[in-house]
Amino acid sequence: MNKRRLFLASTLIGAMSLGSYTIAGGHGSCKHGKKGGEYSEQRMEKKVTRMTEKLGLSAEQSEQMKAAMKSNHETVKGFREQMRTLHESMRSLNPDAADFDTQLGSLANQKGELVRQMTIAKGKKRQAMAKILTPEQ
């Protein structure tokens, strides 16, 4: 199979695997059919409620946890948008181009840096949440 056919086949398979996501909920929806913001709010509330019950959080601690989660959510949302843009750029690469390897390497480096930043953000959220808790909790 030549490079072009292989590229087209992999693109088609990728599009087919995304089909259930887009058909079920539309762009920007989760598998439950709710828009991202609404789903995130419900999920965050559920997490904070569970933490409050298990750890005995005060009302002030619960609010601080919500704030930490919201702040992280906004940060990660920006990273997800950047990741989506990178994926579109990768899909639009021409495998027959003379500088394909260079372009692909550049996009791979950008993706690696983005994953690094997302990992750091996740760690900082965990750190912020740990600071809210008392040593007993």
Model description:
- The longest helix has 33 residues, at 59-91.
- By secondary structure, this protein is mainly α.
- The relative contact order is 0.09.
- It has a domain at 47-132.
- The protein is 80% helix and 0% strand.
- The radius of gyration is 20 Å and the shape is elongated.
- The N and C termini lie far apart (59 Å).
- The chain contains four helices and no strands.
- Residues 14-30 have low confidence and may be disordered.
- It has helices at residues 3-25, 36-55, 59-91, 100-132.
- Keywords: Periplasm, Signal.
Q: Which value, in Å, is the CA radius of gyration?
A: 20 Å
Overall mean confidence score, pLDDT? 79
> Which word captures the global form?
elongated
Structural class: mainly alpha
**Head-to-tail CA distance between termini:** 59 Å
Count of separate DSSP helical elements: 4
Strand count, sense and closure of the main sheet? none
- Share of residues in strands: under 5%
| Proportion of helical residues | over 70%
Number of strands: 0
Order of helices and strands: HHHH
* Poorly predicted segments: 14-30
GO cellular component, one term: outer membrane-bounded periplasmic space
Family: Belongs to the CpxP/Spy family.
InterPro entries: Cpx_auxiliary_protein (IPR052211), LTXXQ (IPR012899)
Pfam families: LTXXQ (PF07813)
